[in-house]
Task: inverse folding
């Protein structure tokens, strides 16, 4: 504990400032919103996430911050519960809307307006789903982001004022087509199961949670998680590894695997189920691993379903799989669900819920 | 009040008759069913809606009345709550099923059978959704119509006994295709942002709520709403204007905009949120405007999603957007939701819920 | 009753054994899981269903048993309620996952792993939906099978380690294409409304509930139902007949009709609504018939929706239509819903709920 004294004092000082200054409080809420993308209610995590985005793309950092600010502001203006806003629960969908729209649509003045509307609507959808799901004490996850961004993206073919980027490419599936399984980068095309390629596939998987196709971003994101919860950081890495491994075993497309696209949903499933929404035990760890593995066919399936209109799966596989694995709640005696009001770091949840040994 | 004495007396006399004569009561319930398509529980509104359909298409009026009668009769036979039936809540989906099927399928004897089955099933779906949504005191809106009609329409490719009209045209989306943005009529092709073309786009947007691609129908529908609620008529017009304007700003297809297809979902969103399900305040008015604007990308998105099978979005964008904007309920302090049991005209709701000034 | 004495004694002896021997208890639970595919909580029904599958395809019997065992085992390991497991409620989705995946994917070592994962996940989804639907006391039906199998099947285009069979054939719908309405077999092509062809269409409709495209399988399945409930067997036959008849009237594809594909969803709708989840009266029988008829366009619609990616509707039409027809619950005075805790054979439900005549 002694070694952690200095960071702890900085954190306490920041919390103190946030209570006295509305400006610091707002910055704190925004940073927590960034951290909440991976269930980390911690401003330092959020700051590191921002750094991780910046090293890959200042443009995406900018549109992400726009989305973050607008969705949080919308929550204030609509009179949402202040403590929810302070914990960043109206920010994480907004930041993803901002990044997601800017990745799939060409930069344009109207794109800014589009992000503003999307981020504001993501706050409405967040409150809608929070109310709907409260019947079962279930979390909305990133469903507000997925739903809002899908509607805005699908529409783009009908609007001449916005242009899709090259990432949008409709193509009906063909059963005969051979899948290119060599693990390789899109640009250089250097392939094979090398250590470097595997490292890229692994850490880009963490980076892609926020659409950052970058090994360094992934590493910084992991560090950001670790400052708040080493368990969650471990499960993020485990999820990325299981996602990549499952994709390789199934003979999935090697470009897609290299760029981490089979990893990011697995990362989120693993964090959510491994300690956040179920108390961490070896049983829930195994359960989280199965969810992470299942997110791989789920991602492929949603990609196929959307392939005739060329649209991305976003984090829908994570939302769907995690909902399916969480909804059993107390129905499985082997697992202990965490009430939403008690959700905190995996460490604190474990300490609070597990019976202490005498 | 004095000026409104005569119509009031006619209305009272009608209500009196409806209580004494089962035949008049049935006609009253059917007319209210027509009015409920736009949330107006008023037989005169329903009568004017019928006139509005008739001036555009006697055929659609006929199939609409068939659907209306069958869905209401099904509710009686199944033993649904009588007061719900009397308020037209089992009629509005049926009338839309009748019109929608006849617009997208060629007239045929089997089409009649198809409408009868669809209208009856819409009553089952209405009760199913009413029960499902009662958990959150949420309205079913026109979801029963959308769901039932989608199933019956999608099936048409598999049935040689029914033929789709030219409005059904499958086409996979292509990112490169240019959108024709000139505001113009399908038939003559005369285009441009003229006052006449804008008027067509605006009022056809109201007309298209009941599939009537006709300026005059739109005007009569507006009059029909206004006899029951001037606030709702105002929001209908506001919705149509916002839908058209948003489509023009986004550079949407000019044919589609001219024919009111970017308007009808916005009209319904604006009426529903602007005074009916939230108490009218300047805040809820602004909220309704955002919903109306968001219905434009939502309509385009659902149209794109269904484009590979060439099927219409119907009022699904309205249902989806309005559900998303209503489900927050009391979660937003800036808005006052109206319990379903208290839903009435926007004027009465406002009078009952707003604190009176001394 | 005297004539039924011998079978009754065998049944009692089996129940006795199941209580004393864990091995027999496990076999009993697995057989009930097979029977629950058609709502029959009876080990003898399950045994006959297994025979029905075997006469058509030992391969599908094998993969079905694998799925059955894994999904039931997963429920034990996860600590699900023992009485639910004993009643086969975690088996029926697993057996369908095993058969469904093996029908649409080529046999392969990885297919075995795929079935194991799918069957285990179907148990998770079953518990998720059971918990979700408990809010309305609604059954999950075969939704866990449909959802899990769809995700695993859709993904196949992305995985080179698995190959789809010829049954997977993407094709965008075309409004002009003529439907081949002659009732005929795929292999020989001998067509026409002959008694033999009608019998094939009818009984294969029952067989296809478990993907068995075989007249004899259908007959054995009917016998399996009849040993537990003659009412359910009657409704299975009624559903198959209504499905086939509706398909013929609508001019549906004759191959599809011959092979029972318009029947299996109708069979399940008819059994579920005709006596199992609503007390059997002449009104609920009529209601079940309408549901069975409506399942025909619902099947065609879902097939069309999935045609661009070439994927099968599975029992989604049954799940959707039955949910829509059950969700009204007590909202229709003409029908008496059966609480899930009271669901048994149609005969017992009728005896318990109908007022006895003095």
Result:
């Amino acid at each position: 504990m002694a070694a952690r004294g200095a960071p702890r004092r900085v954190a306490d000082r920041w919390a103190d400032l946030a209570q006295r200054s509305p400006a610091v409080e707002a910055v704190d809420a925004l940073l927590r919103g960034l951290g909440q993308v991976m269930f980390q209610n911690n401003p330092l995590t959020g700051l590191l996430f921002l750094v991780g985005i910046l090293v890959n793309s200042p443009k995406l950092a900018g549109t992400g911050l726009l989305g973050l600010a607008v969705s949080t502001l919308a929550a204030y203006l609509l009179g949402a519960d202040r403590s929810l806003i302070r914990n960043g629960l109206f920010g994480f969908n907004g930041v993803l809307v901002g990044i997601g729209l800017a990745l799939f649509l060409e930069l344009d003045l109207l794109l800014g307006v589009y992000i503003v509307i999307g981020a504001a609507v993501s706050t409405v959808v967040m409150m809608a789903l929070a109310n709907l799901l409260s019947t079962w004490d279930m979390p909305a996850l990133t469903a507000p982001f997925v739903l809002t961004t899908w509607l805005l993206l699908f529409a783009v073919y009908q609007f001449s004022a916005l242009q899709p980027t090259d990432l949008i490419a409709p193509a009906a599936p063909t059963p005969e087509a051979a899948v290119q399984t060599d693990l390789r980068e899109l640009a250089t095309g250097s392939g094979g199961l090398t250590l470097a390629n595997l490292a890229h596939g692994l850490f880009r998987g963490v980076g892609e949670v926020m659409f950052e196709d970058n090994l360094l971003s992934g590493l910084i994101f992991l560090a950001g998680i670790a400052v708040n919860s080493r368990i969650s950081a471990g499960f993020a890495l485990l999820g990325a590894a299981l996602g990549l491994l499952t994709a390789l075993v199934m003979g999935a497309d090697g470009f897609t695997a290299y760029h981490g696209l089979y990893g990011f949903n697995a990362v989120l499933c693993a964090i959510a189920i491994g300690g956040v929404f179920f108390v961490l035990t070896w049983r829930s760890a195994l359960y989280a691993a199965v969810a992470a593995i299942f997110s791989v066919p789920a991602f492929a399936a949603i990609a196929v379903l959307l392939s005739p209109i060329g649209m991305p799966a976003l984090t829908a596989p994570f939302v769907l799989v995690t909902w399916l694995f969480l909804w059993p709640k107390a129905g499985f005696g082997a697992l202990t669900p965490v009430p939403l009001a008690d959700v905190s770091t995996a460490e604190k949840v474990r300490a609070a819920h597990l019976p202490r040994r005498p």
Remarks:
- The interface with chain B takes residues 135-136, 172-175, 177-179, 181, 249-253, 256, 287, 290, 293-294, 296-305, 307-308, 323-329, 331-335 of chain C (CB under 8 Å).
- DSSP finds 16 helices and no strands in chain C.
- The mean pLDDT of chain C is 94.
